[in-house]
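Data availability (excerpt). All sequences and predicted token strings are deposited with the supplementary files. A representative entry, Polyprenyl synthetase, is shown inline so that the format can be inspected without opening the archive.
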Amino acid sequence: MSDDDVLTRSLDAVQRRIHSVLTEENTRWSAVDPRCAAFVDTVTAITTAKGKLLRPRFCLLGHLAAAGDPDDPRAVDAAAALELLHSFALLRDDVLDDSPLRRGAVTAHERHAKDHRARLLRGEPRRYGEGVANLAADLAHVYADRLTRDLPATARAVWDETRVEVTVGQYLDIAVAAEGVADPELSRWIAVCKSGRYTIHRPLQLGAALAGRPDLADAFEAYGLPLGEAFQLRDDLIDAFGDSEDTGKPTGLDFDRFKMSYLLTLAVRRDERIRELAAAPAGPDGAARMRDLLVTTGVADEVEQRIAHLVGQARQAVADAPLEPRWRAELTDLTARVAYRDR
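Structure token line:
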């Protein structure tokens, strides 16, 4: 069996595991009340929607590259847990950003608010929708944590740190946006903490720990941190210049929500016109003007250059890593897929 077949088989096992967990929960809670089953379905909808499965992929790659057993059920559970943790982060992020769209579908909080209005329920639809989405995020987090309960101590420590980092990163993201702080280095750190670490670095480290190779932690950090930052910088560019028809989510949210991404902090520091636009809700005209200025001031190109530099760092790190050539090649190929995607 080829390496691609092994990885594909393992990813299929992860998806089956997620489906099994969520189906069992739906059946269990259906017996209590149909509302409970619908609540579980909120987690199912976002978890089984078309996603990239990056976090499970990197976890399994870390495990296989560390000579782990491809049939180890703990690796499948850990990878499934990472995807459910991602669902937690997406549900929470969509509420924090008041985003109407995710993976081409209406977001959970918007869907439940619409249901509240349609059924003429008591209370405020928005608060109801956000409440359901936040609780669904908590439920996804609980399911993820349950899947990691049998992990060895070294792997569990990585898992715990991952959860702390993504939560602290989310807090800083909204705090800096509210304060209007334009600090490129802080923005970079938030990007790495909120997204980069839990997308690439920690999943690789988790997989290696499960294979009994914690000694690979430094090599995977040297690869995962720059590539994780490149991943988030690409996300910033997609938000600024992407098309929601292609991305499956709204674009321009960073402008409207005053998010101080690395892209915007560079721009705000460089140009007075951008500072003025960033100080008020952008709207369609403001967003278009902002996009033009990001190009004409050279900021967008500078971020592209930084992405290229970070990809080079990641590729050098994996070239120096004590891994078999086949896994070095796989990790090298992934740098382009992560850093130069369009959604």
